[in-house]
Amino acid sequence: GYVALTSVETGEDGKLSSLITPTRDGYTFDGWFTKSGTAVTTKTVFDQDTTLYAHWTKGVQIVNPFTDVPSGSYYEDAVIWAVSKGITSGTTKTTFSPNSICTRAQAVTFLWNAAGKPKVSGTCAFQDISSGAWYYQAVLWAVQNNITSGTSATTFSPDQICNRAQIVKFMWNAEGQPDVFGTCVFK
Predict the structure, then answer these.
(1) In angstroms, rounded to a whole number, what is the distance separating the alpha carbons of residues 41 and 52?
(2) Cα→Cα distances 112→43, 50, 51, 102, 129, Å
(3) How far is CA 96 from the centre of its chain?
(4) In 3-state terms, what secondary structure has residue 53?
(5) Is 147 strand, coil or helix?
(6) pTM, two decimal places
(7) Which helix (H) or strand (E) covers residue 174, if one does?
(8) Rounded to whole angstroms, how far apart are CA atoms 26 and 128?
(9) Which parts of the chain sit beneath pLDDT 50?
């Protein structure tokens, strides 16, 4: 939808000195436009009174807040998606640390978050996990849903680094171990 902007003055050069960037809950601001749909910026020259319209798109566009996730990188969209869905967060407000390791606790927490943080009950048999650990519910959920069984009958090894094979095994298990067709091309 559009919302009109009134009473904005131009300088002697016919250009706007500034344009506000409005906010609207549940919408992304697309920019200012003329009635004919021409985009307007502070470089647009006006020679007559013109009504400007703010254009909105329903839904909120997530802006990449991470200085270490380069625009256009192969993982930028995946990072923004995962953060917007609450699957993960940054390591700080402005860093994601894309080259950092991923632990077993982090991996099952990502999956648990992606599943909507389902409530689980019961207790965990792993001696290396306390009930107050930030990943306790995720591990309990992962075990109850056959995503992992731990590194032994009594240990989960939450700080152990996951390799790619472990991560895809977790994901495959989380999907219910769907049937596989074809052959593997990796040698």
Answers:
(1) 11
(2) 48, 52, 49, 15, 17
(3) 11
(4) strand
(5) coil
(6) 0.66
(7) helix 164-174
(8) 43
(9) 1-4
